Amino acid sequence: xxxxxxxxxxxxxxxxxxxxxxxxxxxxxxxxxxxxxxxxxxxxxxxxxxxxxxxxxxxxxxxxxxxxxxxxxxxxxxxxxxxxxxxxxxxxxxxxxxxxxxxxxxxxxxxxxxxxxxxxxxxxxxxxxxxxxxxxxxxxxxxxxxxxxxxxxxxxxxxxxxxxxxxxxxxxxxxxxxxxxxxxxxxxxxxxxxxxxxxxxxxxxxxx
Amino acid sequence: xxxxxxxxxxxxxxxxxxxxxxxxxxxxxxxxxxxxxxxxxxxxxxxxxxxxxxxxxxxxxxxxxxxxxxxxxxxxxxxxxxxxxxxxxxxxxxxxxxxxxxxxxxxxxxxxxxxxxxxxxxxxxxxxxxxxxxxxxxxxxxxxxxxxxxxxxxxxxxxxxxxxxxxxxxxxxxxxxxxxxxxxxxxxxxxxxxxxxxxxxxxxxxxxxxxxxxxxxxxxxxxxxxxxxxxxxxxxxxxxxxxxxxxxxxxxxxxxxxxxxxxxxxxxxxxxxxxxxxxxxxxxxxxxxxxxxxxxxxxxxxxxxxxxxxxxxxxxxxxxxxxxxxxxxxxxxxxxxxxxxxxxxxxxxxxxxxxxxxxxxxxxxxxxxxxxxxxxxxxxxxxxxxxxxxxxxxxxxxxxxxxxxxxxxxxxxxxxxxxxxxxxxxxxxxxxxxxxxxxxxxxxxxxxxxxxxxxxxxxxxxxxxxxxxxxxxxxxxxxxxxxxxxxxxxxxxxxxxxxxxxxxxxxxxxxxx
Lengths: 208, 513
Fold this sequence. Notes:
The structure holds two protein chains of two kinds.
Chain A: E1 18-20, E2 24-26, H1 32-42, E3 51-53, E4 59-61, H2 62-67, E5 71-77, H3 85-102, E6 107-113, H4 121-128, E7 137-140, H5 144-153, E8 169-174, E9 179-184, H6 189-199
Helix pairs in contact in A: 3-6
Chain B: H1 4-20, H2 29-32, E1 80-92, E2 100-105, E3 121-128, E4 136-139, H3 145-148, E5 162-167, E6 175-181, H4 187-192, E7 196-201, H5 204-207, E8 217-225, E9 247-250, E10 253-254, E11 257-261, E12 264-271, E13 278-282, E14 288-293, E15 296-304, E16 306-309, E17 314-320, E18 331-336, E19 338-339, E20 348-349, E21 355-364, E22 388-399, E23 402-405, E24 417-420, E25 424-431, E26 438-442, E27 448-452, E28 467-470, E29 475-481, E30 489-495, H6 498-502, E31 506-512
Parallel strand pairs in B: 1-3, 8-12, 11-21, 22-25, 24-31
Antiparallel strand pairs in B: 1-2, 3-5, 4-6, 6-7, 8-9, 9-10, 12-17, 13-16, 13-18, 14-15, 14-17, 18-21, 19-20, 22-23, 25-29, 26-28, 26-30, 27-29, 30-31
């Protein structure tokens, strides 16, 4: 009576290359590395390649220039925020300093304004100057529709457009590995640092 | 009895109804974005239901200690069985056509079952051949801290390495438990991809009850999934509300069929879904016996025509098919009548929209010597509220687009409660509002519910529990005694809507001398 069938797997199955709509030739996943590539490709639609402007008035494409092949910590903020952002940005600055020791040059920080009308590149430059910001940290503005699209695709958009909603959430990811998570922006800098290192693929040493 | 065509229509009708019933509500963007991703909006390939036989996970057999170099050896007189398992990807025939890549324990989704005896220790060596670090949690076990799999990053199994998990199985009673991934921040993805299996602790006293056993004792793992156009599972890590899929699986098969005889069967049902709730009933409307809860058999069985199953909850039932005349056209369906379109929680039961999870084909005429005794488990512990040394309050709340416990996110290095060994405690679990449902799971111990919003627990909730649903506005008091000198150290409690858990709706408690 006991049915065990259907769980028995055959090995050595030949798989033909598949073509995904609009994605070009893509091998179906058949082992762990291929799964990683497949997952990465599947998540591609979450990174609209909209044009954003940095605090130095440089044009950056969200996917091609800021996300692709990168390890990123994404924060949403606005310069006039007087509640959470004044605490989250210095918190992240400490994380950036930690990471420069543990994984130098590996991690980019993206602070994207949710108030792009007021937060011009100049306003963001002024805002960034209040903090001890190292290389690899971009304060980004753009068209409101584009910024909102990015927020929606990353799952941190509030339908009622309350600015503070989701403002406490960091999106941390390793694009090449297809590994993404969200965590608290006000967590302890060591906790965030450790999390970024785990996303990088580093093992956390045992501690009690 | 409905024909297959009618049922197919019903199936399609039901999925349409699920979408149709989606009223305007917050956060529905996740259902619309993302194309073919796993956020419930893509539309999985349609499957004709009841084409495949229900798979039943194989039961693991022990390996010689000598085959596990470096495994722990015990000299305390208690016998130990050793097992070896490999976490690895596999290709499994889930849908017709292209196989699906799944993450597995030992090559199958769900993983193989462990079926140790009460008070007989087992050691499971889990070797990680996946592409990321993992943690294996024994859900519902009275487990030593280092083997509990409590989401601590320093307890992860690195890629290519192994960890020996020690399970003492020294709870008070045998129980229908499970094991699944518990990697901090990534549990939703890892369980979605397939990392879950059953852990069934048996005992002589349960065997003596003469409940349906052997081939008539079958587990059902209910899970929902969404597949892309290539039959692949693609997890959406940007849906933080809770994953809701559009395809229903039992034991890794889409809407399978199970051939049964006209006799009693014991079904052990687990909701292994990330965020979906179920309301389970039979298409015939006939009642069945509810005999067990999360932590073991009930003291006494009771009759019911349906029950709710929240994520991670278990309910054991006995269904008697002797009421049906065996024959090729005798079909009974195991239905889900819970409507749920988003991670916020279930939207209500609609008995007019049953969705068949599984079809029983009542074909065989057989004899049945099994019984459901009036008294089942006599070994249940008692916890005395008068002995409670503390009442701890934990409020599970949505804040700034994420989920917290007592206004804090999980920090693996912060102790949120320190529990003294051999003390009794009452934990008051409160829903912080916003209309969200939170199924709260506490590791290490089984509990009794003292009251739910001031009322004594009813139904399977009167049994031993380790998952407590907080409906909107709920306050639930639960009690346990923290016994077990081996079980010292750090544990967690958390929301078992796994996407909420991954956003750190979790706390740490340490049990100390």
